[in-house]
Design brief:
mainly alpha; 16 helices; Growth Hormone, Chain: A; MFS; transmembrane; about 0% strand
């Protein structure tokens, strides 16, 4: 039995073992999309010097990617419900690669490339909108058993978080060769994922996606009318978790270089510490929850409490080792919660609407990614206390929503939608 086979919860003849290469291929999408964004974070101070831009302007290199994705992800979700998952994912990976190529070419060849780099990042965000978010409903389509779905979502979320761990190291390494090389690596990574999806992921046998727009509107209205409370809670929590994560990474990237004198690979390795803890927590959480909705709720709640507690603790000391430890524990809280939110949605929403609902969730996550760096960049000028109180307050809101609005005994029976095939 291979190492990968041991990820399953049942025996080696389960669907997990049979589809291990499909899982690897699908998991490559969040890994590569994460690399395409997060590996730029440790390079932002260097870009500020090379492009002669401010911290706020450098944060927009991250933000524009996410902003365009926010608006396009629900459209991509609907299209995947109507035409199929692979039909949306494949051209999206191509577009993401072209966006990275444009940004890299501009940085390489132009004297004043900032706005062309932003244009390339916008195009990359268009591609990301149709690739990463479609992974969640695709996993739901691939497996019949809920615990197989949960296990695979844990692998996918771990791939996402592993991308975040690898990103600062790889980004710092590539930028150490040529500062714009992280941009040019994006089309290479996108091509790898494209080939894996094309040749190793087979269309599910019952993959019939012909959702009409009229039926789509009726179904989504029905779902939200009956389950608006917990859906809204999951969406808002997802946005806050990503806001805290990317805000924390932006802050840590800045102070490591400005206050502690770390740069290059050394800085990348230090940034990877809280992300590694997030990755391990994400994998462990996804493997443990199986198909238990109560576990998903309480792991989410206590993960948020840990995150918020660590944020407040950051006020106690500015010592480097202390701060890295606090951020690592904060990463554990975020990593534990994310697979639970994914699984709550995929197990509670019928296949016909899964792409749309999970895409709205992905949009909210991207909203957090987009808002985190620029808001933290502005608040860093006002002192660390105001920033910490903001992040702690958002954590408290998330904890309240998880405790009060997510009702495991009710989520399991999402409303039956009318036939989607017309």
């Amino acid at each position: 039995m291979t190492t990968f086979d041991k990820l399953e919860f049942g025996h080696s003849d389960s669907e997990l073992a049979e589809k291990k290469w499909s899982i690897v291929s699908v998991a490559s999408i969040p890994l590569i999309m994460t690399l395409g964004n997060s590996m730029l974070i440790p390079v932002l101070p260097l870009m500020e010097r090379k492009l002669d831009i401010t911290k706020l302007q450098s944060s927009l290199i991250i933000t524009v990617y996410s902003i365009v994705a926010i608006f396009l992800i629900p459209i991509a979700g609907f299209l995947s419900d109507k035409f199929g998952r692979k039909i949306v994912i494949i051209p999206s990976l191509i577009i993401a690669g072209i966006g990275g190529l444009i940004a890299g070419w501009a940085a390489w060849k132009m004297d004043s490339p900032y706005f062309i780099i932003l244009s390339g990042r916008i195009l990359q965000g268009v591609g990301a909108a149709g690739a990463f978010p479609i992974v969640l409903p695709l996993i739901g389509d691939m497996f019949k058993r809920d615990k197989d779905v949960s296990a695979t979502l844990g692998v996918v979320e771990t791939s996402n978080t592993f991308g975040k761990v690898l990103s600062p190291i790889l980004g710092s390494f590539l930028a150490g060769i040529l500062w714009f090389l992280p941009f040019l690596s994006i089309p290479v990574f996108s091509l790898i994922s494209l080939l894996l999806i094309m040749f190793l992921v087979k269309k599910p046998k019952d993959d019939q996606h012909e959702l009409s727009f009229g039926r789509f509107l009726i179904n989504i209205k029905k779902i939200f009318s009956e389950h608006w409370r917990w859906l809204t809670a999951v969406f808002v929590i997802g946005a806050i978790l990503m806001f805290v994560l990317f805000g924390m990474l932006f802050y840590l990237s800045s102070i490591l270089e400005d206050d502690y004198g770390f740069d290059g690979i050394q800085k990348g390795l230090l940034l990877a510490i809280p992300l590694a803890s997030l990755c391990i927590a994400s994998f462990t959480s996804g493997k443990w929850i199986k198909d238990s909705l109560p576990k998903m709720k309480w792991i989410t709640f206590f993960g948020i409490v840990l995150m918020g507690g660590m944020i407040i603790t950051a006020l106690l000391s500015k010592k480097f080792i202390f701060l890295i430890t606090v951020f690592a524990l904060c990463g554990i809280g975020i990593g534990a919660a994310l697979p639970c939110l994914d699984a709550i949605l995929t197990q509670s929403i019928e296949k016909e609407m899964r792409g749309t609902i999970t895409s709205i969730f992905s949009s909210m996550r991207f909203a957090g990614v987009a808002a985190g760096p620029p808001v933290i960049a502005i608040m860093m000028n006002q002192g660390n206390k105001s920033m910490i109180f903001l992040l702690a307050g958002l954590s408290a809101v998330s904890a309240i929503l998880a405790f009060m609005a997510i009702k495991p005994e009710k989520e399991k029976s999402a409303p039956k939608t009318n036939p989607a095939l017309e």
